[in-house]
Structure to design on (85 residues):
């Protein structure tokens, strides 16, 4: 049984962990770890600081509020740039 299976990782999660571990020590590695950590925190609990139309703070990324749309747009743009588009 693989270590990923023992830890309960999906194949996609195991691939991501492997890719992160393979990054050479560098400033880019540090930035990648910081960005991914902050992004995961945001997606888990966006808690957008701006109130929505009903006056209630956005509690989840599922509602597609302005902040979540902005982050999605940034990530989609980054993917396009990385793939040479």
């Amino acid at each position: 049984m693989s270590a990923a299976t023992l830890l309960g990782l999906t194949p996609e999660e195991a691939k991501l962990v492997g890719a992160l571990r393979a990054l050479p020590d560098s400033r880019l590695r540090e930035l990648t770890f910081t960005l991914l950590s902050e992004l995961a925190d945001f997606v888990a609990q966006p808690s957008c600081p701006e109130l929505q139309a009903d006056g209630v703070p956005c509690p989840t990324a599922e509602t597609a509020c302005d902040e979540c749309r902005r982050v999605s747009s940034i990530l989609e743009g980054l993917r396009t740039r990385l793939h040479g588009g």
User: Anything to note?
Assistant: Residues 27-44 form the longest helix (18 residues). Residues 25-85 form one domain. The chain has one domain: 25-85. Helices lie at 3-7, 11-22, 27-44, 66-82.
